[in-house]
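Entry 14. Ran structure prediction on the chain below.
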Amino acid sequence: EVQLVESGGGLVQAGGSLRLSCAVAGISFDDYAIGWFRQAPGKEREGVSIISKRDGSTYYKDSVKGRFTISSDNAKNAVYLQMNSLKPEDTAVYYCAAERVYGSTWYDRRPPDYRTMDYWGKGTLVTVSS
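Output, structure tokens:
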């Protein structure tokens, strides 16, 4: 059974940091790109960052570049999102998602599409106060 379980969300002041974790079970990092989406109230779900071990590519949404860092730990079956210099506009529910990949993902030059993700976690709420 595939499971993606997020943790690490919470309330933080602007300028603060949080590290989100996604515990992954039932899939291989070699076969799946795994990343983070977020959805704020009244807004569409958007891709924040994704990493693909298959071709070594990573993607960051422009507004988080230089502030967020995605990483993965095969031994712990986990993917992390280190979020620094948080802003109120980062407030959202953050979801971990996985996409089966078969070749080049081009995630170094294009955003992930929530419609092509195969598995989702239930989300963790991040609230950034001003």
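The first strand starts at residue 3 and ends at 7. Will compare against last week's run tomorrow.
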